[in-house]
Amino acid sequence: MYRYDEFDARFVTERVAQFRYQVERRLSGELTEDEFKPLRLMNGLYLQLHAYMLRIAVPYGTLSARQLRMLAHIARKYDKGYGHFTTRQNIQFNWPKLVDVPDILADLATVEMHALQTSGNCIRNVTADHFAGAAADEIEDPRPIAEIIRQWSSLHPEFSYLPRKFKIAVGGAAHDRAALKFHDVAVEIVKNEAGETGYRVYAGGGMGRTPYVAHVVGDFVATTDILAFLEAVMRVYNQSGRRDNMYKSRIKILVNALGPEEMRRRIEREFAEIRAGGTLEVPAEEIARITDYFAPPAFEALSDVSPEFEATREADVDFRAWSDVNLAAHRAPGYSIVTISLKPIGGVPGDASHEQLDALAELMDKFGIAEIRVSHEQNLVLPHVRKKDLSAIHARLAELGLATPNAGLVTDIIACPGLDYCDLANARAIPIAQRLSERFADLKRQRDIGELKIKISGCINACGHHHAGHIGILGVDKKGVEFYQLQLGGSGAEDASIGEILGPGFGEHEIVDAVERVVDVYLERREGSERFLDTVRRVGLEPFKERAYAAH
Amino acid sequence: MPLIRDGIFVEDNFATIADGEPFPANGTIVSLARFHKDREALLARNAPVGVRLKSEESPEALGEDVHRLSVVVLEFPKFRDGRAFSWARILRTRLGFTGEIRAAGHFLYDQLAFMHRVGIDAFEVPENITLPEFHRALGEMTDVYQPSADRRKTIRQLRAGFETLPSLPSGERAG
Fold first, then answer.
1. Which of B89, B142, B160 sits opposite A14 (nearest CB)?
2. Domain count, chain B
3. Which residue from A34, A369, A374, B147 has the fewest beta carbons nearer than 10 Å?
4. A337/A480 same-domain check
């Protein structure tokens, strides 16, 4: 994985000092809260319902064991013993004190981490496919270019006071695991007919109150030109994005107001000039140098069939259930990608305790696993695991409460923090996730239902990605009472689509029953190996609507 | 407002006048609308001219006339409005403007370094800012990751041991 050199290290250390000075000025009253707000946000610090919340960047979701231990340390020393992994591959701590935050950032700097631009109207932490470098269906590891984008976007002088936040994701595989088309900008690694690698660039995707699937604005951008192209997109947005209404200020609104063709024309104009200037060219040697950091581990020459793995599958039903759904195909024979579910039945999606984080670091060291990933689905991933080690790893994960065999199933629910923590929320999201998880706890039933992605947001901002849920749930407030709207048919994958609203919202005590009835309709109407999403797309909303409201 | 230009406090040798007002004897700064209206008269005077752009006004509206101006003032109506960062960059890099780019309006200590990087070299600052503070703001970060109008070597160039600057954009060569 990427390692800081002297320049990166000094940059992050000086950024901590800069923030420390900002906090001092706030505490002394020199800065008003209004002035301090954008400064703290650009360092990931929110003021929430009950306390400050610090969001720490996990660039493209990759962490080392050493970094995991630091997160455990922060949870213990400055927080209430746990952290929360988010849909943008970051980790949030919900209870830090303002005076402690500079020290937390200084601690993070010692393990090459920071909270740069995890909030604010700037280019946010760059996300990537969580199976990067391991997936069998990958063209190229997206992380080197994500790292190049991370560096370019860090304290960008021109683009730190944008109309609104700006999220970039990078993917490089046939299957989109990074929700590319729901980002302000997405970079997809593609090959052209000559077999050369380049980037297809999308712009204008997003969720929130006006969801859009992104448009292609660059068909095949050369690898050396990617920063020039991104700078062009940013400049068009910074000049022309709306600033009069925060609900209309994301780039998706601009792209759809201008139309994708006009947007492309404007980008092309800026791009031609920036490219001609030459200062933003990323030389092939630089790409190669950064790529070297992400070289995969030296894979052992193994047979793809592991007798140890097969024997445990025969003997241990729990292991079999887990290995059926929590493993993904690895590009190297004899290896697997492991999803560590942070969705125990009845638990809070995405939460991990300091004990779990420390124990995972120990597990990684024991089995020689150098990195762990955070997925946007709020799980963790061990990208390179020998199949013969899986039974021992599963046994340890089970002891830690981290072996829930539900990756991609109905209880693998995404939920935002909702009204339990968040200042913006209209309704709680976590308790709904917990009750749904309990309702569908029966593993046989979960496996019968198959792939079903439920995503819950506690407000229209859609941090819980409800627009992209096969079943999306949106919490709304009606005169002080929480209601939950159902949306069906969304997808954040390569077949991206926005879910359609089923009808009026359900009360807090009705929503779980309503979801269950919707699932029943699927079970009755599915054909062959159709997923829930496929059935919704084939039969439309009507049968679901009829049943969901039948007992209403 | 005190004025910092090229890193020191200086007397403001320009008078900013409202659209109806007559021109003063010396340097004058007018709105873009006034400039368009009285362009001939302004440029015919034997005194330096400046234009003050609102944050929604692109310097490209000045066309080739930009090279006849001594100063372009960029307005920050509130510090969150970051359009002027792009206007400054366009002035320096695309239009090749070599005169003074002045920031006016509401901006923060914490934005000075960014402003300086994109090519702003004069600042109408609040009364309470001192020169040591101004220079502290500019020096908080030793290195930068991205090229900008200040032509500082980027971290990538430092890593590669660059001794010479890369070629300039065509606009800068022309200017």
1. B142
2. 1
3. A34
4. no
